[in-house]
UniProtKB/TrEMBL annotation:
Protein name: Maleylpyruvate isomerase family mycothiol-dependent enzyme
Gene Ontology MF terms in the entry: isomerase activity
Xref: InterPro entries: DinB/YfiT-like, Maleyloyr_isom, MDMPI_C-term_domain, MDMPI_metal-binding
Keywords: Isomerase
Organism classification: Bacteria, Bacillati, Actinomycetota, Actinomycetes, Kitasatosporales
Mycothiol-dependent maleylpyruvate isomerase metal-binding domain residues: 15-154
Superkingdom classification of source: Bacteria
Domain MDMPI C-terminal, first and last residues per copy: 170-265
Keyword Cytoplasm: no
Length: 275
């Protein structure tokens, strides 16, 4: 085997999620590609286009030369503009064109990953054209992104599933890693504060974010005897909030809050950690 063992987990998670996307969209009729998703301004076709486009960039394909329309309300900054090019250039593609390109991209990318011989710490071009990251981090982020978009498609197509798949495990770790920033930088939790997040459902975990005397946050699996705030919610709701797919008010009946309500509200307002 040429692939480093620490990379295989992310490659497997990516493969599982992107193959699930292919299975979801292959039987769709033309009209179903236009169904809206929770991603602002994006249809099912657009989400699939985004996945295809980023995988093509990972393959080293040149980016399309394409001018965006001026009336795309959801394009708000350079990052969203960057992402939109790969999406808008495919808006005129038919269902067969979309499924064919997805399948061809999946084959090419799978072959590339099977033949990966670099070490996990090798520096590579980051997703979305960002700064260089390690190969391991790049693969982790691609597995995370593809699984999140698989779930976007499942909700739009009313085909739930894979909430406990390999991609879900990667997403859990990525989102937990972001919790200290949500509590400290986002919500401004004061020093010596503890916040507990208790998640149940297909993926279960309990984590405590502790803010030290200097205002820095750390996350651990050890319980807190006197947290300032405790959140209890199911895994799917956690993903929806952390990935910015819903506003807190839309799922308030699915989130149990105990403790400092003002701090809890501040944390929920800044809970989304994805672009």
């Amino acid at each position: 085997m040429t692939v480093h063992p620490s990379l295989q987990t992310y490659i497997d998670a990516w493969s599982h999620a992107i193959e699930a996307i292919s299975e979801l969209v292959t039987p769709l009729v033309e009209g179903e590609w236009n169904r809206a998703t929770a991603c602002p301004g994006w249809s099912v076709r657009d989400v699939v286009s985004h996945v295809i486009g980023l995988e093509c960039e990972m393959l080293g394909d040149p980016r399309p030369i394409h001018s965006l329309p001026r009336d795309l309300y959801h394009v708000r900054n350079e990052l969203t503009r960057y992402m939109e090019v790969q999406v808008d250039v495919r808006r005129c593609h038919t269902a067969p064109e979309m499924t064919s390109e997805l399948e061809y991209t999946l084959i090419r990318r799978s072959r590339q990953l099977r033949n990966e011989t670099r070490q996990p710490d090798a520096r590579v071009r980051g997703p979305l054209g960002g700064a260089e990251v390690s190969l391991e981090e790049c693969l982790r982020l691609r597995a995370f992104d593809v699984w999140v978009h698989e779930q976007d498609l499942r909700r739009a197509l009313r085909s739930p599933g894979n909430l406990d798949s390999p991609g879900a495990m990667v997403a859990r770790d990525v989102l937990i890693e972001a919790l200290p920033g949500v509590v400290t930088e986002g919500a401004g939790a004061p020093p010596h504060t503890a916040v507990v997040v208790d998640v149940h459902g297909p993926v279960e975990f309990m984590r405590t974010v502790r803010v030290d005397a200097d205002g820095r946050g750390t996350v651990s699996g050890s319980p807190s005897l006197g947290p300032a705030v405790t959140f209890v919610l199911d895994w799917e709701t956690y993903v929806l909030l952390a990935c910015g797919r819903v506003r807190p008010a839309a799922v308030e009946d699915r989130v149990k809050v105990e403790g400092d309500q003002a701090l809890a509200d501040a944390i929920l307002r800044g809970f989304a950690v994805t672009p």
